[in-house]
Amino acid sequence: MDSTDETILSIFRQEARISFSELGARIGLSTNAASARVRRLETNGVIVGYQAVLAGDVTQNGPHLEAFIDVRLKPDGDSTAFLAWTSAEPAIRDAVHVTGPYDYILHVVVPSTKALDQLLRKLKADGGAAQTQTRLALR
Questions:
Q1: Half-sphere exposure of residue 43, counting CA atoms within 13 Å on the CB side?
Q2: Which residues contact 110 (CB under 8 A, 6 or more apart)?
Q3: pLDDT digits (tens, 9 = 90+) for 42-82
Q4: Per-residue CA distances from 73 to 54, 79, 83 (Å)
């Protein structure tokens, strides 16, 4: 990955629906070259999906909680299925596979403690988590 790829990822974080022609114009590449870069990032597993974030799922300017959730999967848990589940949850910004007593660390942003509680319950009921530990970001 080079600086052009980093720029592409930065743009996609803000505008995942940008056209290849607009993307190419912003980074100084042709439409075909921009498309080829994105396809390579997808093939290499850097970009694993695109999702719609709905207004009701996040708060833009209002209060919110940012948290980090350590997740230990159930003994028969499937990492691929877990990652697919996390990518479909709008509150989950990132899922990182880690070493140590937990399998993953999730970076989440939710509008309230109630929403955090609901997410934790869904993680255990539907996501395949056996155990979680949650830390709130203070700044």
A1: 7
A2: 64, 65, 67, 91, 116, 119
A3: 888 888 888 776 666 555 556 689 999 999 999 998 999 99
A4: 28, 8, 11
In sequence order, what DSSP letters do the residues of 30-92 get, joined into one string? Answer: -HHHHHHHHHHHHHTTS--------GGG--SSS--EEEEEEEEE-TT--HHHHHHHHHT-TTE
End-to-end CA distance of the chain: 30
State residue 28 phi and psi, 5-degree precision: 80, 30
CB 82 within 8 A of CB 73: yes
Continuous segment of H or E residues that includes residue 128 = none
Please indicate, yes or no, whether the overall pTM of this predicted structure exceeds 0.90. Answer: no
